[in-house]
Amino acid sequence: MAFVFSSAFRKQGLFVPFLNAVRGMSSSGGPTPPFTTLSVSRPVDAVTHVEICRPEKRNAMNKAFWLEMVDCFSQIAEDSDCRVVVFSGAGKLFTSGIDLMGMASDILQPDGDDTARISWNVRRTIAKYQETFSVIEKCPKPVIVAVHGACIGGGVDLITACDIRMCTQDAWFQVKEVDIGLAADVGTLQRLPRVIGSRSLVNELAFTARKMYADEAKSCGLVSRVFPDKEAMMAGALEMAGEIASKSPVAVQGTKVNLIYSRDHSVADALDYMSTWNMSMLQTQDLMKSAQAAMEKKSLKEIIFSKL
Amino acid sequence: MAFVFSSAFRKQGLFVPFLNAVRGMSSSGGPTPPFTTLSVSRPVDAVTHVEICRPEKRNAMNKAFWLEMVDCFSQIAEDSDCRVVVFSGAGKLFTSGIDLMGMASDILQPDGDDTARISWNVRRTIAKYQETFSVIEKCPKPVIVAVHGACIGGGVDLITACDIRMCTQDAWFQVKEVDIGLAADVGTLQRLPRVIGSRSLVNELAFTARKMYADEAKSCGLVSRVFPDKEAMMAGALEMAGEIASKSPVAVQGTKVNLIYSRDHSVADALDYMSTWNMSMLQTQDLMKSAQAAMEKKSLKEIIFSKL
Amino acid sequence: MAFVFSSAFRKQGLFVPFLNAVRGMSSSGGPTPPFTTLSVSRPVDAVTHVEICRPEKRNAMNKAFWLEMVDCFSQIAEDSDCRVVVFSGAGKLFTSGIDLMGMASDILQPDGDDTARISWNVRRTIAKYQETFSVIEKCPKPVIVAVHGACIGGGVDLITACDIRMCTQDAWFQVKEVDIGLAADVGTLQRLPRVIGSRSLVNELAFTARKMYADEAKSCGLVSRVFPDKEAMMAGALEMAGEIASKSPVAVQGTKVNLIYSRDHSVADALDYMSTWNMSMLQTQDLMKSAQAAMEKKSLKEIIFSKL
Amino acid sequence: MAFVFSSAFRKQGLFVPFLNAVRGMSSSGGPTPPFTTLSVSRPVDAVTHVEICRPEKRNAMNKAFWLEMVDCFSQIAEDSDCRVVVFSGAGKLFTSGIDLMGMASDILQPDGDDTARISWNVRRTIAKYQETFSVIEKCPKPVIVAVHGACIGGGVDLITACDIRMCTQDAWFQVKEVDIGLAADVGTLQRLPRVIGSRSLVNELAFTARKMYADEAKSCGLVSRVFPDKEAMMAGALEMAGEIASKSPVAVQGTKVNLIYSRDHSVADALDYMSTWNMSMLQTQDLMKSAQAAMEKKSLKEIIFSKL
Amino acid sequence: MAFVFSSAFRKQGLFVPFLNAVRGMSSSGGPTPPFTTLSVSRPVDAVTHVEICRPEKRNAMNKAFWLEMVDCFSQIAEDSDCRVVVFSGAGKLFTSGIDLMGMASDILQPDGDDTARISWNVRRTIAKYQETFSVIEKCPKPVIVAVHGACIGGGVDLITACDIRMCTQDAWFQVKEVDIGLAADVGTLQRLPRVIGSRSLVNELAFTARKMYADEAKSCGLVSRVFPDKEAMMAGALEMAGEIASKSPVAVQGTKVNLIYSRDHSVADALDYMSTWNMSMLQTQDLMKSAQAAMEKKSLKEIIFSKL
Amino acid sequence: MAFVFSSAFRKQGLFVPFLNAVRGMSSSGGPTPPFTTLSVSRPVDAVTHVEICRPEKRNAMNKAFWLEMVDCFSQIAEDSDCRVVVFSGAGKLFTSGIDLMGMASDILQPDGDDTARISWNVRRTIAKYQETFSVIEKCPKPVIVAVHGACIGGGVDLITACDIRMCTQDAWFQVKEVDIGLAADVGTLQRLPRVIGSRSLVNELAFTARKMYADEAKSCGLVSRVFPDKEAMMAGALEMAGEIASKSPVAVQGTKVNLIYSRDHSVADALDYMSTWNMSMLQTQDLMKSAQAAMEKKSLKEIIFSKL
Question: What's its catalytic activity (chains A, B, C, D, E, F) (predicted)?
Fold first, then answer.
């Protein structure tokens, strides 16, 4: 199983000892330095596996997590050896959401001399947390998220920022925020309605905080695949990741950039952007290499594309 | 069954004798003063039930209806004793849509000295009718609509402006407008495509005016729940309403405001608005009360939240 | 079977010998002059049938096709005898997508003295190809697309620009572009996410280029009807087209214009546009004619609406 | 001097005894019933003159003012006898801005059980005050504002919502809000940058709260005319108003609607809206009447246009 | 004076006998075939001069004009020998605007069986006329417009779609439309407020239809240069055109595309588009050639840039 | 002259030895560690002075500059001791723009295996450079820029991102980019048209690259103040900065945030954002303190506002 440190990492003079990670997914029993909440590995060539890894805390999102996500995905964005990301949770469930205990000071006791100043600081904190998941979108590599067991509160914010969602048969999802007295503010209210097709269902989930199980998640389109158990799901996720990684990175990453662009713009604007994007991106060897593979009926896995 | 007049109503010096309504849902056999087309009651604490109530006219939407809706939902928006609204139709069906006979003068014989002036007046009339359903969205309290029997023409405009849709097994929906020679102009063409996930289906319904029955309505996401009959549906609607009403109104109403905001803005804009919204809204006792209830495993129904 | 040359065609002094087409759909065995890739006929009064017709080349989209589509739909937009369009493919499958061989020079060997100039020319080419499908949206008449067999690459771009999609049980769809080294740039990435409700599925299709079969296409909402075979589908498409063609063209075409407008604007903006649109469009005899037919329980097929 | 009560006023059953106003502008020494802060008159046929009229309080904007403006301009919008509005201030200056003393409770002691609830109420109050000036824009009749002496704080918010600004040589303008500890929130920050051409100047005015005098106001484009004194200015304003009032109301009011629309939309969107607007508005007798007057070299003042 | 037929023109097999034009600007005494209202010449290398040329009709815009403008600017957009356009009017004034007599049928007697159908046709006509000036913006080459004498009605619509405006001392401008009973609908209301900095002035001009003379046009920013007479202005325009034509066409035309893009988008969106644009456009030899010329203190007129 | 290290700087554990800077503006003869291109000082309480400081290189923007600007303004944004920024250039002129020699590798020899990959890298570089000036806008403190001598190319990009512009009588401005073969891509084309009122002038400057001198810069609104020489200008800038710094930071910074927000949104959206912003920001002691100072006719300089 190949593993090469990204030159981008090295250029920045960062010390990123992913050594444990090299041994692959199954053996990574805990957080990997320098991250304390994320375990990062390369199970398959060109595929990065990121695992939220606080199993003893039900993968609750603590202060470190919010910061490490930004670092992790910024590095992945720059890592030309990575073409696809698989994201999952270690232990018995995907995530129990925000770690209220560990973050009480930020949320429940914000700083400031008067209400205006407290608000000012609260806003900056929220914006920072929002960025934690927006980095997933800004990273041009497709992110497949694989959910097992519970995916609660902040977990839903996280998965709606990913590109492809799959889950196990025992998975359930819960937009929990109203139950703890707040409107969800790090992405669910903004992204969930764009991710599934039934607005009545989105509203029901957000207002009642009820659980949604795997079958409903599949039929409403939140996930596009359901697997019998975590092992099967991870195999499925890695297989899909490997498949995507075998294709031209110019094609795949251009696709992600334009899919996200078009979500937030009119069709006319998005078409214009697309033509301006592809006016240079069509000038790639990958086009010829891919076309030739197609004509020769070769698998793209046999083709070597330059790094991007 | 508790019922308290909204102080907001009283402060405004409005005389709102909802007396008949007090007796609750089942007993309200007809329109309630001062409304002639709407019956308003409080079947459950903090839940307002609004019923379109012209059963002898198949709940057709006449001139009075268009005006009364605005008054009714403006009052509900201000009524701090109401946290959730259930909307349904009296009699055998939800609504047969616009009352063509009763409104012919407005639509078929508009006023004006020349085409330009007639058009000017027609535009104002349409804008006024559009407002009739937009008030449902502007009201920050979740609105659950429960449909039985037929929901035709203007009825579809109405329900797409509600937050959660449910129906009985015998319900059917019809975007009727093309059949009477006009493009639907009070909301269906604008909201239906954002409410269900299949654009091909939206177009088919709008161009053919065919009926869609409960099962298809459920599978396409127009409704999120189907009940065997009206009684079961009303019980289900009230239960869901009660559930939502038990949660922090700061959380629930902030959720509605931001869900609607995010529908009409880019994700980046909507996240920015969200953080600006929550910078003050997180400074609520509800957060602590809710968090404590969660830790003590108490039901939120045991918690008393201040009015909003 | 009625067939009348559009007066709009004649006024423009265009020589449009649709003679073969007159004989109707089943007999049209090949491309019709002056089009070499499209066969155009009028199988039913007020319904235009456009068929992509290069069966020996698996209906691959060659240079002529991209230009002829623009001409064809511009003419249809002006043809007041046409109220609905049915689009399908001749031969064994709908389309195999872009004709790479036939278009290699445009795409693989663009002109220009340096990278900037090549890019400039590539951008114009892409924009021109995008226009090929955007004309379908700009044409105010509903376009029903009927897919059998394969619908690959450019075929998906094409069908997402149509209004109603139906397919046969043996149909399959493939967003093929990443497999040939490019991000899809003539509409799929912009329109597919607005056409079906599951974003996870959209992304999966776009990143993996896997095939999607009829059942999944139906359950995700890409198509709204599935038929056992092509014959049944064409009959179904023509029946639906005839149904739509029987309704007021003012109502139907105003509906299309506003459905597309509302896709790209906020609800508030789209409502405003709608009222400005209908201030004149309600001043039509069609309203009275339709209302009267409704009251007399006549079929709209018995009513004669003026041309539009 | 002609004066006719608007039939719109009468139809609504409102008792609007503008009797003092009839005597014209100069003699109106105080507020006119039923308004306590506004004096409304018709100095010239088809021209409504609205005067902020609390001279003993330097025309400070008190609670009544904020409400009365909405009523006043809503009535004007419906009043088909009015085609143009002139707005000015009674006494020694235009306005000293918000009446802090009279409004302290709203602003300094807002209601609510916790910060979230206080904020909720504050937001509603601000939105209501914003509406006070937005009604000026929503009223389709051109509003000419004539400023003399001081125009401070809320006064700048007000005038930026008007269509044409003129002032006396002794006038000065001050974006005062930062000096009392708040960001201007009823329109200045939103409209001033769209009203004058130098963003550096806008920022300087908003950050320093310095006074700007008539000459600078003219050279930067805030006002388009400067007059030696109030008498000359009022004569100039009424002359311009009379001029505008003599033209087709279909043309003039359509111009205002589209000028404001185009401010907030792209050029492409605004052109589309314009064509949809004029498709009916060109079907007016006014076009023929105006064209004929032009050919016969008659003044438009000799032409009688139907009311709008 | 150099003159080379555009290869683009020839490639398209169009017969464009600009023979009269060859003799240059001053000698072109009338319309040039195949255009009947426009005279097109190449007075300076890489500069196209377009002249509206119906001096005996005060350059009024007749039916032919509206069509020819589209053809003319579409050809210029494709003509790689043209880098800059100068637009002016033949005879005593720039243009008296729309030729009401010649176009009465389109505007005053539109076709259609009922109001809706008439409106439908009117809308298409307006859209077509709007396109007449929008082509100026879509043409990526800078267009300098030189105005002498009167510029009335449609003339203002035209010049606001140009990039650089200059005029003679005796020029005046008039937004004439309200005087003939309509809201200006081919661009003035959409573009004028984005072209000059004083909104009060824009409104005054549009509501009163008063004349604005050269000095005010300069001080408000409508024109950026005023010349004593037409001869001096044409010399100035050609000099500026020659100056611009000497620079890299990749740089100049990319500048126009992005200036117009940024007018209609947020700064963030426009910056993103800019970087996507320049990612290929910086890969031009022009950069090196220009940099070298700068270092060697050569004039750009000595540099030969490839055609674009 | 007071100078206090920002606690924000210290909290972050950054070593920021602004020692030379302490001695104030006039004595700072060169770049200050850890910045090599920027000199940062605190000449007046709560005012940060940032000076581009490569006088021997005519303040050309080299690689270090682009990075240091981001660090510098990010720190200023967090520095609660700073309320206003003054930006100027050391030595004989403001800046000669981009340091072509020092940056040739980035711009002229970008990395990548094919055109697509080179473009990908170029885009990231441009985006990074754009961020260099966007940080000025994201910093909520007003930035006054003081220009003397030349302001060329990148200098114009920089100053258009500042809030208030002033210059000396001998200053000149030049949008230089077309002269070196590229469209300006780090902000000028996006911001300049929003900063001055004459679009004709913007275009002329961008297409011709001609110099604009102080008087024209003042009359077109690019700068709002012109001073006889640099000494007078710096005194004026610091005086204005001190004035702004004396006001409530809640008011001033909220003003900046909303002015920039409103530039990129419709008036309606911007008003909504404003009310959502101020619902908490009005709950500040600054309001009471400022109001009291106003009533007691005290200068705000005597008031102590809490830090923000």
Answer: (3E,5Z,8Z,11Z,14Z)-eicosapentaenoyl-CoA = (2E,4E,8Z,11Z,14Z)-eicosapentaenoyl-CoA; (3E,5Z)-octadienoyl-CoA = (2E,4E)-octadienoyl-CoA
Could you confirm whether A177 is annotated as catalytic? yes
Give tens-digit pLDDT for D90-133.
999 999 999 877 776 766 678 899 999 999 999 999 999 999 99
Q: Which of F194, F244, F279 sits opposite D122 (nearest CB)?
A: F279
Tell me whether residue F1 is in a domain. Answer: no
Q: Are residues D93 and D183 located together in one domain of the fold?
A: yes
Q: Cis bond leading into C34, ω under 30°?
A: yes
Residues of chain D numbered 89-128 and touching chain C (CB < 8 Å): none
Tell me, what CATH number does F296's domain have?
Answer: 1.10.12.10
CATH number at residue D148: 3.90.226.10
Distance CA D62, CA F87 (A): 41
Contact C277 D276 (CB under 8 A): yes
Whether F308 is covered by a domain: the verdict is no
Looking at the structure, tell me whether residues E167 and E290 fall in a common domain.
no
Strand pairing class (C164-168; C143-147): parallel
Q: Do C285 and E119 touch (CB under 8 A)?
A: no
Of D114, D280, D306, the CB nearest to B113: D306
- Is residue B51 part of the annotated active site? The answer reads no
Same domain, yes or no: F82 and F181: yes
How many domains, in total, are found in chain A?
2
Structural domain harbouring A32: 7-244
Q: Catalytic one among C76, C98, C164, C196?
A: C98
Q: Is B31 found in the same domain as B166? A: yes
Shared domain check, F199 and F98: yes
Per the CB < 8 A criterion, the answer to whether C117 and E278 are in contact is no
Q: How confident is the model at residue A34 (pLDDT cuts 50, 70, 90)?
A: confident
Is residue C26 located within the same domain as residue C97? Answer: yes
DSSP A118: H
Mean pLDDT of B251-264: 98
State the virtual CA torsion across C66, C68, C71, C73 in degrees, nearest 10. -80
Domain boundary among B244, B269, B287: B244
Evaluate whether residue A308 is within a structural domain.
no
Q: Write out pLDDT tens, residues F72-101.
A: 999 999 999 999 999 999 999 999 999 877
Please check whether residues D20 and D58 belong to one and the same domain. Answer: yes
Q: Is B154 a catalytic residue?
A: yes
CB-CB neighbors (< 8 A) of C283 in chain B:
110, 115, 118-119, 122
Give the model confidence (pLDDT) of E212-239 as tens digits.
999 999 999 999 999 999 999 999 999 9
Q: Which parts of C139-177 fold into alpha helices (H)? A: 154-160
Degrees to nearest 5, angle at CA C8 with C7 and C9: 90
Residues 6+ apart with CB under 8 A from B297: none
CB contacts, 8 Å: D139 with chain B: none
Both B260 and B240 in one domain: the answer is no
Q: In what order do the strands lie in the sheet with B211-213?
A: B150-152, B172-174, B211-213
Contact with chain B for residue E266, Cβ under 8 A: no
What's the CA gap between C108 and C121, in Å, rounded? 12
User: Is A2 within the bounds of a domain?
Assistant: no
Q: In this complex, is the C-beta atom of E184 within 8 Å of any C-beta atom belonging to chain D?
A: yes
DSSP state for residue D59 in the 8-state scheme: T
Alpha carbon of C124: minimum distance to chain B alpha carbons (Å): 28
Residues contacting residue C213 through CB under 8 Å, at least 6 positions apart: C171, C172
Q: Where are the alpha helices (DSSP H) in D196-284?
A: 199-208, 214-219, 230-245, 249-263, 267-281
Facing residue for F284 by CB, picked from A116, A281, A307 = A116
What pLDDT is recorded for position F101?
Answer: 76
Q: For this structure, is C185 an active site residue? A: yes
- Distances, alpha carbon F157 to alpha carbons A277, C296, F162, F189, in Å: 24, 70, 9, 8
Instruction: Look at residues B244, B268, B284 and tell me which one is the last residue of a structural domain.
Output: B244
Interchain CB distance below 8 Å, F247 and D123: no
